[in-house]
Amino acid sequence: MTAVRPIKKRGSGDSETEYSRESKSARKREAKRYEQLGRDLVMLGDQDFEKLDFGDNDELRSEMLTGRRLRGQYESFRRQMMHVGRLLMTCDISELEKELRIIQGRRTSGSAELHRIEKIREDLIGPDGSAALNEIMGKCPALDRSKIRALVKKAHSEEEQGRPPAASRELFRYIRDNYRESGSGDKESVFSAQDDDDGEEGAGTGPEQ
């Protein structure tokens, strides 16, 4: 359904040149807004993109899929996004904008949680690791203290020998998948309901592990 937009009426005191310049600038800003919306939608992960509801607008979905295939081809992608923006200007975009806000909000929340787990891992591997371990065990007694100690020890060894940080990554995943503070009941880990690409090896939303 085509969105209805009010048209600015020119006052009696406005000159033709001033009105034309203002109108042209407004149209340019509006075009940029729709183009940016198209970019944000096209750059979503596969699972999030597939959840978008395009209704019966097969042309819009097809052109966005073309845009996804052109990612990494700067000039072709830029032209395709201009085309997608023009298509979006003919549509009611309220639902797509709403879906995008929900996805972006979830990503922001997930990123903050990833940083929190990263900080826990850093504390465990750091010089005050014993104190950090006692602290998180107090918050989550269900964690395996022996397993964490073994992974921390292995992480230190790998660092000293200049080897890839396999134990550090395993420690991150263990904390991510099992850390639940006391009082949360049977609530799932904040990561367990996330899409697969939201974890440690996700699409750049969290810290590098």
Protein model, in words:
- The chain has 209 residues and is mostly helical.
- It folds into two domains: 76 residues, no CATH class; 89 residues, Diphtheria Toxin Repressor, domain 2 (Orthogonal Bundle).
- Helices cover 63% and strands 0% of the residues.
- The protein has eight helices and no strands.
- Helix 3 packs antiparallel against helix 4.
- The longest helix is centred in the middle third of the chain and has 32 residues.
- It is elongated.
- The chain starts with 15 loop residues before the first helix and ends in a 31-residue tail after the last helix.
Write a brief structural summary.
The chain is an all-alpha fold and 209 residues long. It has 8 helices and no strands. Helix 5 packs across helix 8 and helix 7 (145-161) packs antiparallel against helix 8 (166-178).
Low-confidence stretches: 1-10, 184-209
- The oligomeric status of these chains comes to single chain
User: Tell me, what is the CATH class of the largest domain?
Assistant: Mainly Alpha
Determine Rg (CA atoms, Å): 25 Å
How many structural domains? 2
Terminal Cα span: 45 Å
Q: How many strand segments?
A: 0
The topology string of helices and strands comes to: HHHHHHHH
Q: Might you state the CATH topology name of the largest domain?
A: Diphtheria Toxin Repressor, domain 2
What is the overall number of helices? 8
CATH architecture verdict of the largest domain: Orthogonal Bundle
Shape type? elongated
> In percent, how helical is the residue content?
55-70%
The percentage of residues in β strands lies in under 5%
Question: Main β-sheet, in a few words?
Answer: none
**CATH superfamily label of the largest domain:** PSPTO4464-like domains
* Class per helix and strand makeup: mainly alpha
Mean pLDDT: 78
